[in-house]
């Protein structure tokens, strides 16, 4: 069961007909969070997606803050190519959501 990353219309809590599946987290999710080199208190938005089996929704002003957390998190995963790739992709999705006025939904399929 993947953890899907979707671009969704603001206010949606489930993917819909206008939603776009961007990518899926796989085993790299565990690399990021179990055990994590990141401090939960320093990365509160990022840690909302820690539970692989739960949804996480990021909207509005959270997206630029999550992007900043991702910028900082990228520094902690040197040499972990799969984790770096997913963190970069998630960062790009956040920036795209801001540009398009959408939300980012991590959906536990």
Brief summary:
The chain is α+β, with helices and mostly antiparallel strands.
CATH architecture: 3-Layer(aba) Sandwich
CATH topology: Hypothetical protein yfbM fold
Task: Report the uncertain regions.
Answer: none
Beta content:
15-25%
Number of strands: 4
Radius of gyration based on Cα positions: 13 Å
List the helices and strands and how they pair.
Layout: E1 3-9, E2 20-25, H1 28-33, E3 56-58, H2 62-74, H3 81-100, E4 102-108
Antiparallel strand pairs: 1-2, 1-4, 3-4
Features of the shown structure:
109 residues; alpha+beta; Hypothetical protein yfbM fold; 4-stranded antiparallel beta sheet; 3 helices; 4 strands
Write up this protein.
The chain has 109 residues and is of the alpha+beta class. It has a single domain (3-108), classed as 3-Layer(aba) Sandwich (Hypothetical protein yfbM fold), CATH 3.40.1760. The protein contains three helices and four strands. The chain has helices at 28-33, 62-74, 81-100; strands spanning 3-9, 20-25, 56-58, 102-108. The protein has a four-stranded antiparallel sheet. It is globular, with a radius of gyration of 13 Å. The protein starts with a strand and ends with a strand. The model has no long low-confidence stretch (mean pLDDT 93).
